[in-house]
Amino acid sequence: MMITDEDWIAAEEWMLADVKNQPKAVRARYDRRMSRIIFSLDSGLDLAFPPRLAQGLENATADELADIEISPLGDGLDWPAIDADLCIPALLQGVFGIKRWMGSQMGASGGRSCSLAKGNALRENGPQGGGPRKARITSGQG
Predict the structure, then answer these.
(1) How far is Cα 47 from Cα 36, in angstroms, rounded to an integer?
(2) From CA 67, how far away is CA 44, in angstroms rounded?
């Protein structure tokens, strides 16, 4: 398939129109005290997230996290020292990495959840383990 000049121009126009409708990052910084990446959008909205949530940032040092660049179109954040990039529209949707990486992060924390019932059962059952005991249903008269 050959791409014509008209196709190329139409694609560029579509991209520029799409970019105009997306939120743009205008400021970004790393807050060492709170251990948060903070970025501001052109709408005035400020957002923050812990770097441990984002693919490529989870093991970065404070100095590496502090070196943030905003992409020329304002649609991404870049950490050149660690070759990490995050897309603003994806961050706004709660996407902090590729699907496989995000799945591994969710799976890693799954076994750590502890409900009140689970905690009480662990204390009650001690080394026997197991979850909350099921109530026994007995029939009235045999």
Answers:
(1) 10
(2) 22
Tokens of residue 137, six digits: 């249903």
Tell me the pLDDT tens digit for each residue of 86-135. Answer: 989 888 888 776 555 455 555 554 555 556 666 666 667 765 655 556 66
Comparing CA positions, the residue from 22, 35, 1 lying closest to residue 91 is 22
Domain span at residue 84? 8-108
Residue 57: strand, helix, or coil: coil
Please give the order of strands across the beta sheet that includes 84-87.
69-70, 76-79, 84-87
The pTM for the full model equals 0.59
Number of domains in the chain: 1
Q: The CATH number of the domain where 104 resides is what? A: 3.30.2020.40
